[in-house]
Design a protein that fits this description.
Its main location: nucleus. One of its GO terms (biological process) is DNA damage checkpoint signaling. Keywords: DNA damage, DNA repair, Nucleus. This protein is 16% helix and 34% strand. It has 383 residues and is an alpha+beta fold. It has 2 domains: 5-105 and 141-169, Box (Proliferating Cell Nuclear Antigen); 185-382, Roll (DNA Polymerase III, Chain A, domain 2), CATH 3.10.150. It has a 10-stranded antiparallel sheet with strand order 6-7-2-3-4-23-22-21-11-19. Strands 5-1-8-9-10 form a 5-stranded antiparallel sheet, covered by helices on one side. A 4-stranded antiparallel sheet has the order 14-13-12-20.
């Protein structure tokens, strides 16, 4: 009997780079489709990370539809996988074990020149490794993924310099109560596309004051047009603002570029002189419902945003979306080149590098519903 699924990749580092972005939990739900493999990781039903490994990332990709309907089938998420009209088998597997398998050879620390940006500022704890301390995997390594039938292990075979290593990872039945955190695509009230570096640096700046709450504010009519604030930590609230500058410049004055409120309450503007720079946002669409007025304001657990730090560091761009219910989606565009390194890491995010595979990593966050809930979180963290 032919295996249900077999795929061969000539660059295991591409797979590792994308999957490590969602390595904040131990287990992932995997779904195999004719167009690629979908990985979903969630924690407490308040954060979810989604990665779709398109078949174009593999040198060969074979999917043999099961003859009988499998009991564990799931309708793919169209926003992540593209339009799908069929259901496909899926299972749960240890993503920690997958990442350890993919880096079984060539475990070398990245040199300082190749580290993702701001590695010394923002740190996250993941099940696999430090968010900004991925191993420099070697090139010219063949990686074969195989899933024989429903209930079988997920087999990963790494071949390098004539040495072949096969790991068979136990698969589990998915939770019946599982599923994606719903993002209402017909009720999107905010869509902001910008360089991922801007978001990464803003979160890193706020992280220095150890906040527990992230407050997001956006308005298309008045300043601050887009601002992120950290609150609930041992210091006063700090804020990073992104302005709309008609002259396409970044200055250190209040209301332009970044403005930070220090622990003593004084305004401290960035000491950067005016310079010509790319527009901060490529797309800026904010249309709050009448009940919100002219400004969107939502709060999220800051610790959850830190779990997306790895994706922020390797991505070129990020699409920030929010719906009427307050669900926040951060969809990262990761452009992979042919030199084993994400373009965003090697030559700077937002700068177009060699044409290579492009993949997306999607994070979804559930908002804090009210001030009372936020106060409970701040109080629990203080204890």
């Amino acid at each position: 009997m032919e295996p249900l699924f077999t795929a061969v990749s000539s660059n295991a580092h591409h797979l590792y780079t994308l999957l490590s972005c969602i390595g904040f939990a131990h287990k992932a739900t995997v779904q195999i489709t004719p167009e690629g493999i979908r990985f979903s990781v969630e924690e407490g039903r308040v954060i979810q990370g989604l990665v779709f490994l398109d078949k174009s990332l593999f040198t060969s990709y074979t999917y043999n539809a099961p003859t009988d309907a499998e009991p564990n089938q799931h309708q793919p998420d169209q926003d992540t996988n593209g339009s799908q009209n069929e259901s496909y088998p899926y299972f749960v597997v240890s993503i920690s074990a997958i990442l350890e398998t993919l880096k079984i050879f060539g475990i070398n620390e990245l040199s300082d020149s190749n580290r993702p940006r701001e590695s010394s500022i923002l740190h996250t704890n993941t099940a696999s490794s430090s968010a900004f301390n991925a191993p420099a995997l070697l090139m010219h390594r063949s990686c074969t993924l195989q899933y024989v039938r429903h209930g079988a292990p997920l087999s990963i075979t790494i071949t390098e310099a004539g040495v072949k290593t096969t790991c068979e990872l136990v698969t589990y039945e998915p939770d019946e109560n599982g599923g994606d955190i719903p993002l209402q695509r017909d009720a999107i009230i905010m869509k902001i596309i910008m360089r991922s570096a801007w978001l990464h640096n803003a979160i890193a700046e706020l992280n220095s004051s150890t906040p527990t709450i992230l407050k997001l504010s956006a308005s298309a009519k008045r300043e601050p047009y887009f601002a992120l604030s950290g609150a609930g930590g041992p210091f006063s609230e700090s804020t990073v603002e992104f302005s709309i500058d008609q002259h396409n410049e970044i200055t250190g004055g209040p209301g332009q570029g970044h403005k930070v409120v220090t622990a003593d309450g004084s305004n401290r503007a960035r000491a950067t002189r005016a310079q010509v720079a790319p527009t901060v946002t490529e797309t800026f669409l904010v249309s709050p419902p009448s009940s919100m007025g002219d400004r969107i304001q939502q709060s999220y657990r800051f610790g959850l945003l830190r779990k997306a730090a790895r994706a922020m560091s390797v991505a070129n761009k990020v699409s920030i979306r929010g719906d009427r219910q307050g669900v926040l989606s951060l969809q990262f565009l990761v452009e992979l080149d042919d030199h084993n390194t994400p373009v965003g890491r090697s030559i700077g995010a937002g700068v177009k590098g060699p044409n290579g595979p492009v993949s997306f990593v999607d994070f979804r966050f559930v908002p804090l519903l009210d001030e009372e809930e936020a106060e409970m979180i701040m109080g629990a963290d203080d204890d």
